[in-house]
Amino acid sequence: MATRHDTAAPPVKEGGAAPGRPPAGADTERAMKKRARLSRRWQRDMRWSPYAFVSPFFLLFLAFGLFPLLYTGWASLHQVELTAPTDMSWVGLRNYTRIFDDDFFWNAAKNTLTIGIISTVPQLLMAMGLAHILNYKLRGSTFYRVVMLAPYATSIAAASLVFVLLFGRDYGMINWALNAVGIDHVDWQNGKWPSQIAVSSIIVWRWTGYNALIYLAAMQAIPQDLYESAALDGASRWRQFLHVTLPSLRPTILFTVVVSTIGASQVFGEPLLFDANKGASGGSQHQFQTLGLYLYEQGWINQHLGRASAIAWTMFLILIVIGVVNYVISRRLRASS
Amino acid sequence: MRARIRTARKAMVVAAVASLGAGLLAGCADDGGSDGSSGGSGGDSGGKTKITLGLFGTFGFEEAGLYKEYEKLHPDIDIQQTVVERNENYYPTLVNHLTTNSGLQDIQGVEVGNIAEIVKTQSAKLLDLSKYGKKSDYLEWKWQQATTEGGETVGLGTDVGPMAICYRKDLFEKAGLPTDREEVAKLWAGDWKKLVQVGEDYKKKAPKGTTFLDSPGGLLQAILSSEKDRFYDSSGKVIYKSNPAVKDAFELTAKAAEDGLIGNQTQFQPAWDTTIANSKFAAMSCPPWMLGYIKGKSKPDAKGKWDVAASPKSGNWGGSFLAVPKSGKNAEKAAKLAAWLTAPEQQAKLFAVQGSFPSTPAAYESDAVKSAKNEMTGDAPIGTIFAAAAKSSPVQTIGPKDQIIQQGLTDNGVILVTQGKSPEEAWNTAVKTIDNNLDQ
């Protein structure tokens, strides 16, 4: 079957049976030059055009990504107020060192972590379950898939305002339902855990469908014969899920975990709008103030741009650490599989 | 048959996608705000000069028909306004626009809580309006609030918020308290402690499920508004921590909260609105504009059940200014409009329609103010009651960060007492928050 290359016919050389090129001497000097010029142009074109084609992204990134990033770093070394942003006075690393004994920062960091955990974990588990169900043959599956994505398409503002009403202490529907089954009403906005759970529920509601669709897409790429042979071996649906689906989804799960972690560390809109105080303090005792909210409060409410910049950079560094940890874990996982 | 099922399915998918798309678009549209028609000093439209106003909350110029009237008087002017609902969202944007000199409207509203900071830090960007408005028209302290040390007046006062106490006649009656507004005012005249004492009396026979006052924030605001010095001394130093007036106000409010005389709500939140609708409290400190708010949130059967009595001490809550950025193309015309909008005649009209109380004593003598009636308070002569309060309000020392301090004391302070924290704990939380926010 296989051809051996050394026995195949050698490639045709110039001057063989095929019509060769006209001898070089036939060209006039001008044509030569023209060709050379064209070819130089072509070469330059080939070499530089791709850069021109990708340049819009980089120009935009320079203007709206890199420059603000660097300028924020510069501002974080100064004392700057929003009322006079050009009036900077150098304070060195003071904005960073004060973060170490800034209780509000660490409180916000802790809240970000706990809200991140109680929103990401159930969200991904539920997404997995939903995706598994949707992966079966169903009537109107497209409809369900679109429905799943609907919360994601809703604006955070609209969703959060509705949830604020649902979680109202005195007239909220959730407390009303809890009362109906004999549970005492919960002060969703002022308790530490209740408020964090409430904020997380908005996040879970919004992102579960999105993650489910990602899982679903990955599940549909798993070859059907794996399931067939598993079924032939007498594996139940649950065993199929454990031993076929989950291992094949590993890279996808990792992806969603990374994306959700990054999302969780930047949570902002939900707690901002869940705040009873209209401001950005995240509840009267800062019980659900996240890092994003604290940054916003310092910069835009209290007008301390320098401090806000330092917080932004600290968050950036934390994100880098998270990214590195994720990278290490994913390499370990890849190596072990 | 098959084809039909197919098209039906297709239609469903299209519909679903369309609704998703609509959701996305709605998501994009939800932050209109002041940036909406920026470019600010928009040029000419159809030969007319367009003058834009950037406002927050309800100034009510448009509702009172003042723009139309001005356009009739000046056919070459076309007035447009953009309104951001809450000053908390409006003010940071305004500061940002002023510092970058972009995105400004021809006329910008400024809340009294921010005017000191604007005067202190942004006066170079704003037109001196003392040539346009007539100083003698305005309450002196109102004029002074928007005037720099150098004597430039960067804002013309629109309204003020002289305070009275609004109370429910029906609930007072059920609790065995007098209902006549003179008698009621006598119960607490001269001392806020007496008001809390009346609350104790109310509590003894209170109709079930009601409290005497609406919210700790409301009471604290009222007491502090009647003090001459609160958060800053006249040299501009922050003194809120050491000022006994602030501590006393905090402790009195905290005590009332501990005794259960106050509902545990944050003002202007949906849940607080619901307590108005459900008649859950008997009295509240209220500037004239609050009557409009009460009207908006009440059920129809509450009409006429309210009355207004003088507050223990006169104070001022709220009020705004109009400022004109220098960078606007039509700054001069805008200044003339601002002066017209805040002149006594227009302020009187505004009070008649919108309940914004004039900052110009000349208007107090007008019929519109003297004979003013309010649906919620029946035949109460609200014009005279509030005018008396306005004239006897102290000239208050205001500082650049008043709003941050006030909000800290309320939202991170007294509210905690209603949630079971001790007054000391609440005070400490408030102080810690405020100091961090002030960058002390």
Automatic annotation (TrEMBL), chain A:
It is a multi-pass membrane protein. Gene3D superfamilies: MetI-like (1.10.3720.10). Residues 1-32 are annotated as: Disordered. Residues 109-326 form the ABC transmembrane type-1 domain. GO terms for biological process: transmembrane transport. Pfam families: BPD_transp_1. GO terms for cellular component: plasma membrane. The keyword Hydrolase does not apply. The chain crosses the membrane at residues 48-71, 113-134, 146-168, 310-329. CDD domains: TM_PBP2. The keyword ATP-binding does not apply. It is found in: Cell membrane. InterPro entries: ABC_transporter_permease, MetI-like, MetI-like_sf. Keywords: Cell membrane, Membrane, Transmembrane, Transmembrane helix, Transport. PROSITE patterns: ABC_TM1 (PS50928). It comes from the Bacteria. Belongs to the binding-protein-dependent transport system permease family. This is Cellobiose transport system permease protein. It comes from Streptomyces luteogriseus.
TrEMBL record, chain B:
Keywords: Signal. Residues 1-26 form the signal peptide. Transmembrane segments: none annotated. It comes from the Bacteria. The keyword Heme does not apply. The keyword Ligase does not apply. InterPro entries: Bact_solute-bd_prot1, SBP. This is Cellobiose transport system substrate-binding protein. It comes from Streptomyces luteogriseus.
